[in-house]
Design goal:
By secondary structure, the protein is of the alpha/beta class. 37% of the residues lie in helices and 24% in strands. It has a domain of 137 residues: Rossmann fold. It is built from 9 helices and 10 strands. Keywords: ATP-binding, Nucleotide-binding, Transport.
Length: 268
C-alpha cells in the first residue's frame, strides 16, 4: 500500500465506438460506446445475450476495424493488434497449439530477439508459477483438464507482459468450482503483475466479484446503460464477499437493468 494517492491515468480510451456488419442486410451490433479503462483497473462488461460484447472486444483489440469511433491505447490509436495487448477467449482448446508442450505454447509468444534462452525459461517458469502450474511445462495441452488449459492460456497472455488483458467469457466452459478458482487466480495475477483487465462475462455475480467497475450494455445496437463502481472491500473472498449485503444489492440492480433492457426492446 502506498500512503499517497496517485491520480489514475486512462490506459484505454473508447470514443463513439460503433460497428455495423455489412452485407445484403447490414446489422448494427454495437451502437455507440464511450468509456475509459484506467491503468490498473479491472472492468467487467455484462449485457443481454447477443448485444455485441464480442464485436466490441474485437474492435478494441484491433482484430476488426470499427465502422464508427476510435480506440486508443495510451493515447495511440489502435489500428491493428497492439503489442501491449493480450486476448484470452472462452475456447481454450482452440487457442493452444496441441502439438506444442505447455512451455512451447508460452515460448511461442516470447520474442527471441529481445529475450535470451535463459530469460525465456525464467519467464515461462514465473508465469507457470503464477497460474499454479509449476512443473507442467513438459505436458501437452491434451494431457490437461479444461481449467488447466485455460491457466496455460492465461500464463501465455501474461508471459509477454501486456499492459492490458482483454478476456471474452474466459471461464464459461469450465465447471463451477474451477470457475471460482480461476476467478481468484485472476485477482492474484492482477495484483502480482499490475495488470489492467477488461473482462466480458454473462455471469453477473462474476462481474461484480472481480471488478472495480461494471459496465452494463443494452441490447444491439448496444450502448452503455450504466457504469457501476464496485466498492466492495479487497481482498475478495468467494464466500464472505458474496454474502455481503452490498454484493447482493449490486447483483440484483444489474440483473434488473439487463432484464429491463430486454423487455424494453421486446415491447418496442
Ligand atoms: N460477422 C457477422 N456478420 C453479421 N452479424 C454478425 C457477425 N458477427 C456477429 N454478428 C451479430 O452481431 C450481434 C452481436 O454479436 P456478438 O457475438 O458481438 O454478441 P455477444 O454479446 O458477444 O454475444 P453472446 O452474448 O452470444 O456472447 C449478434 O446479433 C450477431 O448475430
Amino acid at each position: 500500500m502506498t500512503t499517497t494517492e496517485t491520480p489514475s491515468t486512462d490506459l484505454l480510451t473508447i470514443e463513439g465506438l460503433g460497428h455495423t456488419y455489412g452485407g445484403a442486410t447490414p446489422f448494427t451490433a454495437v451502437g455507440h460506446l464511450d468509456f475509459t479503462v484506467p491503468q490498473g483497473a479491472f472492468v467487467s462488461i455484462v449485457g443481454p445475450s447477443g448485444c455485441g460484447k464480442t464485436t466490441m472486444l474485437r474492435c478494441i483489440s484491433g482484430l476488426m476495424r470499427p465502422t464508427q469511433g476510435t480506440v486508443a491505447l495510451e493515447g495511440a490509436p489502435v489500428t491493428g493488434v497492439p503489442r501491449d495487448l493480450a486476448l484470452v477467449f472462452q475456447d481454450y482448446s482452440r487457442s493452444l497449439f496441441p502439438w506444442r508442450t505447455v512451455s512451447g505454447n508460452i515460448s511461442f509468444v516470447l520474442d527471441k530477439n529481445t529475450l535470451s534462452s535463459e530469460e525465456r525459461k525464467e519467464r515461462i517458469a514465473e508465469v507457470l508459477n503464477a497460474v499454479g502450474l509449476d512443473g507442467a511445462g513438459g505436458k501437452y495441452p491434451w494431457q490437461l483438464s479444461g481449467g488447466m488449459q485455460q491457466r496455460v492460456a492465461i500464463a501465455r497472455a501474461l508471459a509477454y507482459r501486456p499492459k492490458i488483458l482483454l478476456m471474452d467469457e474466459p471461464f464459461a466452459s469450465v465447471d463451477a468450482q474451477t470457475r471460482a478458482e480461476l476467478e481468484d487466480l485472476m485477482l492474484r495475477v492482477r495484483d502480482q503483475f499490475g495488470m489492467t483487465i477488461l473482462f466480458v462475462t454473462h455471469d453477473i455475480d462474476e462481474s461484480v466479484y472481480l471488478a472495480d467497475q461494471v459496465l452494463v450494455l443494452s441490447k444491439s445496437p448496444s450502448t452503455i446503460v450504466a457504469k457501476i463502481d464496485i466498492d466492495l472491500p479487497r481482498p475478495r473472498d468467494q464466500v464472505s464477499t458474496r454474502e455481503l449485503e452490498q454484493f447482493v444489492h449490486l447483483r440484483s440492480d444489474i440483473a434488473r437493468m439487463i432484464r429491463e433492457q430486454s423487455q424494453l426492446k421486446k415491447a418496442a
